[in-house]
């Protein structure tokens, strides 16, 4: 509420939204008919509070029927350490439980710190599907290979194109 320009300052949210919902004829998203309700819970430098993130969960649950909210996707996480499902902080459990009870699918990025012993928080939390990145370019000699930077461990649930892919972004100026 205090940000007069609640835009994504580094283009990551725009990139993810375009990967999902772009309607461009050449750079079509995976679900081009999807509608996006973008909520900014971190500040311009990527810092934030748990209260702001909880408010994001609450908004999605409170307006799930009005806006047909089906998915909460989070590209946020800690950079200092990684966790297993057993060692994951319980900080978001209530918000996640409310979202799941409302029938909302919840996913989060596994992290980008090259870790192989665990994944970032909140991706490690029970009920959240953790997502790691693959390349979609012939960088390694083979397509769709695991992006080396993605945090991975037995806790990682799925992989999706996320590095060296063509998608919408605020810097490329592709219309969605």
Question: In terms of topology, how is this protein built?
Answer:
Layout lengths: L11 H10 L28 H13 L1 H4 L3 E4 L18 H9 L3 E5 L19 E7 L22 E6 L13
Parallel strand pairs: 1-2, 2-3, 3-4
Helix pairs in contact: 2-4
Average pLDDT, all residues: 83
Share of residues in helices: 10-25%
Which structural category fits the helices and strands?
A: alpha/beta
Please tell me how large the radius of gyration is: 16 Å
Largest sheet report = 4 strands, parallel
Q: Please provide the ordered H/E string of secondary-structure elements.
A: HHHEHEEE
Strand content: 5-15%
What count of helical segments does DSSP give? 4
Termini separation (Å)?
26 Å
- Globally, the shape reads globular
Q: How many β-strands, per DSSP? A: 4
Low-confidence stretches: 170-176
Q: What strand line-up does the widest sheet have?
A: 1-2-3-4
Task: Describe the structure in your own words.
This protein has a four-stranded parallel sheet. Helix 2 (50-62) runs parallel beside helix 4. Helix content is 20%, strand content 12%. It is built from four helices and four strands; from the N terminus they run H-H-H-E-H-E-E-E. By secondary structure, it is an alpha/beta fold. It starts with 11 loop residues before the first helix and ends in a 13-residue tail after the last strand. The chain has helices at 12-21, 50-62, 64-67, 93-101; strands spanning 71-74, 105-109, 129-135, 158-163.
């Amino acid at each position: 509420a205090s940000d007069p320009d609640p835009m994504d300052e580094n283009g990551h949210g725009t990139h993810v939204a375009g990967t999902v919902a772009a309607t461009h004829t050449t750079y079509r998203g995976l679900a081009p008919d999807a509608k996006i309700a973008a909520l900014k819970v971190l500040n311009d430098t990527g810092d934030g509070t748990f209260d702001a993130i909880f408010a994001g969960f609450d908004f999605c649950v409170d307006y799930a029927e009005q806006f047909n909210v089906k998915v909460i996707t989070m590209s946020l996480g800690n950079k200092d350490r990684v966790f297993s499902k057993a060692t994951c902080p319980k900080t978001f459990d209530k918000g996640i439980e409310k979202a799941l009870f409302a029938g909302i699918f919840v996913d989060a990025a596994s992290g980008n710190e090259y870790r192989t012993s665990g994944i970032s928080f909140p991706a490690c939390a029970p009920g959240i599907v953790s997502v790691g990145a693959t390349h979609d370019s012939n960088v390694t000699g083979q397509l769709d290979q695991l992006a080396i930077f993605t945090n991975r461990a037995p806790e990682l649930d799925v992989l999706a194109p996320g590095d060296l892919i063509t998608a919408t972004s605020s810097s490329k100026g592709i219309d969605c």
